[in-house]
Each structure stands twice: as C-alpha cells, then as structure tokens.
Amino acid sequence: MARMKFLCDADRCIECNACVTACKNEHEVPWGINRRRVVTINDGKPGERSVSMACMHCTDAPCAAVCPVDCFYTTADAVVLHSKELCIGCGYCFYACPFGAPQYPKTGNFGSRGKMDKCTYCAGGPEADNSPLERASYGSNRLAEGKLPLCAEMCSTKALLAGDGDIIAQIYKERVSKRGYGSGAWGWKTAYKETIAT
Amino acid sequence: MQTVSILRRAARALFSIAGAVVGAFALTLLVTAGAFAQQPASVNPTASSVNEQKLLEALGPQGNVGGRVTIPDARSRTLIQPEGRTYRAERDQSAKIGGLSILGILGLLVVFYLIRGKVRITGGRSGETMTRFGFMDRFAHWLTATSFLLLGFTGLNITFGRSLVLPVIGPDAFTALSQSGKFVHNYVSFAFLLGILLMFLMWAKDNFPALRDIRWFLQGGGLIGLGHPPAGRFNGGQKLIFWSVVLGGAAISFTGYILMFPFQWTDVAGMQWASVWHGILGLVLFAIIIAHIYIGSVGMEGAFEAMGSGEVDVKWAREHHSVWVEKVAAKSGKTAPAE
Q1: What's the ipTM?
Q2: Does the pTM exceed 0.90?
C-alpha cells in the first residue's frame, strides 16, 4: 500500500483558496469549521509565500498519542482517521497537533466542544465506505472510489499535491530541478521527520 | 506671409517638444539599462522568499511559523507549531512521574502501616468527648472531599484510563464513561472551588506556621517516634495539608478554568501549559490526599470522629492538640461552655 501524503509547492500556490472551498463543499463541513486553510507568510513583503495546510497525516501522529480515549487509527494508506463515536471532545489533539488540524463545533456550556472534525484525506471514517452514516459524520470517501483528495485534484496551479509520498516527492523534485528553485516541502520535517532533498 | 510664419513657428515648437520627449526617453533607457546591468543573468525567486527550514531555525525549538489567513479563526494563522510534539512529550513524562508518585505513596503507606501499625490512643479512650468541628467545618470538609475525589478519579481516568480501563471495558463503554466523566469534572469543579474557599475563610487563621510546628516536625509528629509533641488546633502536618489543598487547589482551579474555557484568555502555548500543569498539580495533590485519608481513617485511632460526628475523645485531643485543648478549656472555664 502507498504512504499517502500532502505536499504544497509554495512557489506555485496563488492563494486562490479553491482547495478550502472544494473541501468545505465536498464534505459539507459545518459553518466555523475549516479542515483546510491557506496561510500567507510575509504577507505584502518581498518573498511572500502561501501554503495550503490541513492535517498532514503524520507518521507517529501526536494527536493519536495524546487522545485519552484512543479514538484515532491509521489506515493501510497511512491516513490518520478518527472515530466520532469515540471522541469526547477534550481538545488535547489540538494542543498536540503541529498543524492546527483538529476543529471542534461549539456545543453546550462553557468551552465544551463537540466531536472533533478534521481532514480525512477524503477517506471518511470507521463506518462502511460511503454509507449514509459515514457521509453524515465525515463527508465523502473519495479514496474508496479510487480518487485522490479533492483539494489537490482541483488545485488550479497544481501547487497542492496529494498521493503516494514517493511519487509526489519525485514530481516536486523534477519541478525544482527544471525551474531551478523551490522553497521546500512545507511541514514534511515536522510531520514525516524527513524532507525532500532538492 | 502671416500664415506661413505661424506655421513655421508651430513646427519649430513641435520639434522642440518632440526633441525633449525623445531626450527624456533616451535618458530613461540609459538609466534602466544601467539598472539591468546590475541584475544577475538568471533570477532565483526563492532566494528572497520565506523558507521553512530557515524560519524554523531562526525561531528555535519553541517557535511557530505563522502568517495571514482569510478565515476569521485567529488560531488558523499558525501554520506549523512544532511545540505540539513538546506538549506530547511533557504530557507523557508528567503522567509517568505522577502515576509513579501515587503508586509510591500507596506503597509507602502500606509499609508504614505494617511497621508502625495503627496509632493508638495511649491507654485507651477516656469516654469523655469534646467538640472539635462544628457543622459548617464538616460541611466544608466533606464538600471539598467528595468533589475532590470525583474530580480526582475522573481526572485519573483521562490520564491513565486509556491504558488501564479501556482494555478492560472496551472502547464504547470507555467513551461513555469518559464523556460523563468530563461533564462531572467540569461541573463538580465549582463545588470544589466553593469548598476550598470555605475552608480558607474558616481555618486559615489557625493554620499560620508557629514555632511549635518546628518541634512537631523534629519529633516526627508523634508518628515516627513515641510521645506527642504539642500542637494547636492544627498540627504541622495538618497545616501542610491545609495549604497544599488551599493553594494547590487554587492553582489547579486556575489551570482548570483555562482548560474549561479554551482560548478565552490565552493561545495554544498557554493551553498546553495549563494542560500539563493541571495534570502535574492534580496528581501531586492526589498523592498528598491519599496520605491524608490514611491518617484520618485506618492510620489513627480516634481521628475520624473529628470529621465524622465532630466530637473527639478528650484523651485523643490532649495527645494530638494539647495547646488547643488548653485554650478551649480556658475559654469554657471563663465563659459559657459554648465550644
């Protein structure tokens, strides 16, 4: 099985936010929750770059490590998913996540959070693939249909790449060698403890 | 003639304007050519661009990479916060130390009980009793005690339940347990806060350190050695418990309410800090309270009545709180026997 990863080529990202919109629409993510976002660094200054970021589906994921109820699991494709049936909304995964991926709907008194929601790599959850229950809780399951995450699929500049880590790293390497520059695979060192040598 | 000269003048003016324009254009060209000459042959757009590796190196191990986002959630501005991994390590570490300290104190108490046994009243009870704690004293104590135990066990469940309870009862039952535990933990915290506030108001005046406390500690509080060092209403050990509960409880409440109202007053680094310290302080206080429960129940004859009925045996009181007994006796001797 492939080791699925995300890679955002910051030299190609034009901050159009189509990935954010596609994700919200595909999974019918509730108001106030963003599974993916585009962060612009050095905004308005020379060398400004935008990076599209969501759950990176880390190797040895910190969210899974700190979860008090052990609701996370890693699929054969190395996608980090969780069960909303088991989540108690304690918020620890947000403190541990290096990428700010976990999101919580606000429910009830105080700061009590509902079941955590995050990027599923368009791979749904523990319920049966593309069952109505899975769709309602986690959104669509494109991976089960043989499709890649929609954010990357519809990226207009192909800045956001999704797929087998080795293949997308190869694509990025070829790009960098052809054009002669590249600002690196953002988040890879933190998520996968490796980086792409260019 | 007239028209010709006008035409000629106009033509001359046109030429001079055109000349000026051409001159300015040529000058601009020259200047830009000069500027171009200073540029390198090929341009590397990332030479001046932000670079993740350099950003992380410049920020150090606690630094966050952040920028601007177009969604209103301010927290999403942070692109990468590597200290999430630090939080995980600190949490694991403190849970380990806390768990060991609880097991350690339990082990110590078992060993102590086996060696010392129950601390008896020398020569047995006198049969005569005196009031040690009134209704409000006992109410504050048991309010704090029951809420603390509920908070303590639900808190331990959050920290250790995954490895101890989850394999036994299964994921669905464990989620149901932890979910209700979370609600209990949130709501009962207010009762605990009220309890420590009441205790502080009623007992703080009798819990300030006194000189005789030094002697009490030097004699091992009558626990390790024989004989009973003099003590007031509260002895040195009780004063330690009191301030641990009041100050420790206040600190736990402080960090707890930060966690209960996430991101109201602080950022993710503050939340991580609150989470780690809430755990450490909670575990330490739990370990201290285990010792307190021991000495108030199986560890000492006649001690439980103080918080049970509020009436203690006079002989017990003379042994453990000699100064207090004298004070009460002097008071009741002069005025009506109210105490």
Answers
A1: 0.89
A2: no
